[in-house]
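quick one before i forget lol
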Amino acid sequence: MVKVLISDKLSPLAKQIFEARGIEADQIVGMSPDELAACIGEYDGLAIRSATKVTQDILDAATNLKVVGRAGIGVDNVDIPASTAKGVVVMNTPFGNSITTAEHAISMMLSLARQIPQANESTQAGKWEKSRFMGVEVTSKTLGIIGCGNIGSIVADRAQGLKMKVIAFDPFLSEERAQEQNIEKVELETLLSRADFISLHTPLTDGTRGILNAAAFEKMKDGVRIINCARGGLIDEAALKAALESGKVAGAALDVFEVEPAKENALFGTENFIATPHLGASTTEAQVNVAVQVAEQMADYLLDGAVTNSLNMPSVSAEDAPKLRPYMTLSEQLGSFAGQVTENALQKIEIEYQGDVAKLNTRPLTAIVVEGLLSPLMSSVNMVNAISVAKERNIDIVESTHDSEGEYHTMIRVTVTTDKQVRSVVGTLAGNGKPRLVEVKGISLEAEVAEHMLYVTNEDQPGFIGALGTVLGESGLNIATFHLGRAAAGGEAIALVAVDQEPSEDVVAKITALPYVGQAKALKF
């Protein structure tokens, strides 16, 4: 008998779905880590929300565990690398609470506009301070949305129903998709300078952490209002407090915080500040939706081997897996490389398979390439949903295969078209089966991908390599490997440098400032 443990509060429908499918389901809520570790060995599946922590210790004790299902989006409470090493599939339900979170953001915006929480508190205290709470209309105001994916798009639609003008900053939002949604796509600085209200709906990544900081607040309109129902850490909370106290920001409403549970926070008690305890997904409908979805997904996998919304496992048959495994690694590296160096809105992704790889099932490889491309700036993208997410954003995906060998016995070429340029990266498998990058932007080189790398484009001029090495040496960064390529003598050149530690922003800035450098980026794989 297949057994599943539900260790957090989920709708009773989840247990009913498991049992209707012939799966034994136990719901035991509130266990300590030791208690969970003591019993987890009995179960094939574990259904959770945010309370249960799936750590290395839990996984070590989970001798029969095959799948962890997270009812919701965030999987910060799951050790995904350890789960992958253990062979445990990790699933989530990325779209079950989108409407609920979007509605909460709109509610927060309206509460800010009319100071509803403060007026409620004052009125119930018997003060009747009618003249104190002078609000503003949202009609005809400009809402700036940072991150216009699934939730951001719903917020935009609801705001337009309130007769607001919507502008959005999102590197992955195509012009066509923006026009369809009647959204004006703008750069971040433009959004900051024009928006009356700013709502955040972007994942927390290295690129978005602190996206609203002191410098950003300085670029905003006086009297702007800020809403964050996405992720804590997107806003520099100390800078926000200073902006509220100075009056630069007229009000802020946060549902998420840098440290949660936020029982203490410097923002608490600040005038014109509204806080809720991470209620974005807290509606009856959302709780039912995510519980039903996670139960159905887990049952499909445990009974039929079908994989939906997996964060760490591609949908590949048992027969294809051994042949595809090295190509999966290569595809992920090519996609991730292209995604990290692409800075403009994606319009098209072309993936060409030539030689041996063209004879295999390339569909999962295409999904992995797209996942790698979208992951740097989007959360909840995995091999299963990457294609649909790209199509939702009007990103064309073109796949072609050529059985005949070219310069290499097997090769994958990824070409990315943005609204400003076309770039390509090519990879192959070496004799030992390890992936290699062999061409970037039409320039030949051969590089093995490392965890931390620097990507530098420059003019081919004497002394550049020495200058680059000097910056790295003075910064205490040890070079592991150094790969060079150039189009022609004196023309465009590329350096791919593997280093032992993650390069800081300061190091990248120093490299960018060197003579002849066109672009410098720190890459992480």
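fyi Residues 284-304 form the longest helix (21 residues).
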